[in-house]
Amino acid sequence: MSTTTALRSLNIENINPHVREAQYGVRGELAQRSEKYRAQLKKGHPPTPPEDTLPFDQVISANIGNPQQLDQKPITFFRQVLSLVEYPPLLENEEVLRNGLGYKQDVIDRAKWLLSEVKSVGAYSASQGAPAIRESVARYIEKRDGYASDPANIFLSAGASSGVNTLMNVICSSPQTGILVPIPQYPLYTATLAVLNARLVPYYLEESRAWGTNLQTIKESYQKAKSEGTDVRAIVVINPGNPTGATLTAEDVRGVLDLAAEQKLVVLADEVYQTNVFVGSFTSFKKGLRDLQKETPGKYDNLEVASLNSISKGMVGECGHRGGYFELTGFDPKVAEQIYKFVSIMLCPPVIGQCLVEMQVNPPKEGDPSYPLYKEEYDAIAQGLEARANALYKEFEKMEGVECQSPQGSMYLFPTINLPRKAIEAAQQQNRKLDNFYCSRLLDATGICVVPGSDFGQKEGTLHFRTTFLAPGTEWVGKITEFHKGFMDEFRG
Q1: How far apart are CA 157 and CA 129, in angstroms?
Q2: Which whole-number Å values give the CA distances from 35 to 30, 61, 363, 447, in the listed order?
Q3: How does pLDDT run across 272-326, given as a tens digit for each residue?
Q4: pLDDT tens digits, residue range 308-323?
C-alpha cells in the first residue's frame, strides 16, 4: 500500500490502472538515470558527496531520435523564417535583415506569407491546422506520389505521436478492439493500446530478411487474435522501421494493402522516416493504394489508410517544435467528422510547428536565393547520418557475439547480442532482463544510453538493443566496442 494513501486523494493504487500498466522504455529507467548523470556532470567536479566521480565526461543519448540534442544543426532557412514569424517587428526594416543579418529575400517573403495566413503564431489556428499550410502539404504529397491529395483530408498535428493518439482513440471502441503491431515496434503503440485498454496483436518482423514483413506471419497473428475473440480493426506499419531501420519494398507495401483490403483493416502508416533512406527507395502506402486502385478498379475503393509524417525526423530534426500531419484516405466522411471533433478538443496543434511543417514540405527550390545553403546543409546532414550509420555497423561487425543488419534507413540500428551464461546469472541477481542488464552496465561505464530490445519486443530467446547513429564523431562508437569486450571477458566461462 502506498505511504501516501492517508495523506492525499491520489495514490498509486487508485489512479487509472491502464496508465500505471503502460510502458515506454525509450524514456524509461535508463533514460532517467542518464539525465541524472548529465546533471551530475553539469555540476562539475569534484562531485558533491555522497556522489562518486563518474567514469565518463559526457552522456550520449543514443536512446532516442532527438537530432538537435546530439548537435545536428538547424537548417538556416527554417530558423530564419521562424525568427521573423515569432517577432514580426523585425520585418519593419528589411534592409537590415538583408544587408546586416544575411537574410535572403525568400526568407522574408515566406515569413510574410505565413503571417498573412496564420496572423500570429501566438493565436489559435483552425483545429485541423491552417488551411494554407494543409494545401502546401497536399501539394507535397501529390508531387511525391503522383496522385492528387485533398487538403480537407489532411490534419496537422503536434508531431506524429499526437496523430497516432488521435487515430487510436477513434479506432479502439472497446476492450476487445485489437490492432496488429509489428514486433519489434516503437513503444508508442503498445503504450497507447495499454492506456486505451485495447489489445495488442503482435506480428513479428523477419530479421533474416532485413526486418521485412512476412504476410503469412501477419495472417497467423490475425487469425489467432480473431479466434480469441479480438475485434482486429487495424494494422500498424512503420516504414522505414523503428527500431529496425528497415525500408519496405513496393511489393511489401502492396502485400500489406492486399491483406488489409481482404480483412477490412485500417492501415496506420507511420512514415516519419520517409526521407531517411540509404538503400532502395521509399514507397508510401498512399501511392501503393492508388496504384492498386488504378490496376484493379473497385477492389480497393473502401480501404482506409492513415499516413503520418513529422518534422522531428528526416533532415529537419525539429523535435521540440512539435509539428506533423496525417492524411486520411478512404475514410467514411462521418468518421472523419469524429476525428475532427477529437482534435478540436485540444483546440489546435502548435502554430509554430505548423509553420515548420509548411517549410518541410515546401523548402527552397533551385533558383531561390536560399537554395544553395539549404541544399548544402540538407545534404551534409543526410551524408553524415549515412556515414555514421555505416561506421557503427562496421564496429558491430567486429564485436564478439554481435550480429547486425546493414543500415537501410531511419536513425537506428538494432543489433542482436549473444551474451555469456554468467551474464544471465548476474542479471537474475539484479532482477533485470538480460538485455536491460547489458544496457545498464553500458550506461554506467560509458555514459552511452541505448534501449534494451525487450522494450520494443523481440522473439523469445533473442536479445537486442537499439541505438541511434545521431551523435557526432566516432569516439563514442569505440567506447561501445571497448565496453563490450570487457563485458564479454568479465562474464566468459
Answers
A1: 8
A2: 9, 9, 35, 10
A3: 999 999 888 999 999 999 999 999 999 999 999 999 999 998 888 888 899 999 9
A4: 999 998 888 888 899 9
